[in-house]
User: Fold this.
Amino acid sequence: MTEGLKKAWAEMVQPLLRRPRECQVAALCCREGKDGLQVLLITSRDTGRWILPKGWLMEGKSAAEAAREEAWEEAGVKQAKLGSDPVGSFCYDKALDDGYSAPVDVQIFRLDVTEMSDIYPEARERRRKWVSPAQAADMVQEPELQNFFRAL
Assistant:
């Protein structure tokens, strides 16, 4: 390809072929443990990798409220003090059923957990684990999320 065609491809054609970024919200569930701050990770339903509770925005709920709802449904967080502003973000490529992937921007909202339940909607589909932020950085796969945990 000539330089002119390469430039046109990179600047004009490729952006048209990319999917727009989707938006999700995640819950950074926190508590004080005997050795300091702990965060809650859960397993994904499909691959079993460690993730934060997260999901799509919900009609009639703010982004922070949607993150709290995901924390209940996916991790059993029954009571928590919710921060209204995001404390961070990360991006990842969500695998879709059709074999393609979609780029997703995730806003992270902090929940200071005061009560958990062992009975919650996705209890049979996921595992959950309280860990230090340093341990969480080693357990998750998304590089931006690893950096987020290392900065805590």
Remarks:
- The mean pLDDT is 90.
- Residues 22-151 form a domain with the Nucleoside Triphosphate Pyrophosphohydrolase fold (CATH 3.90.79.10).
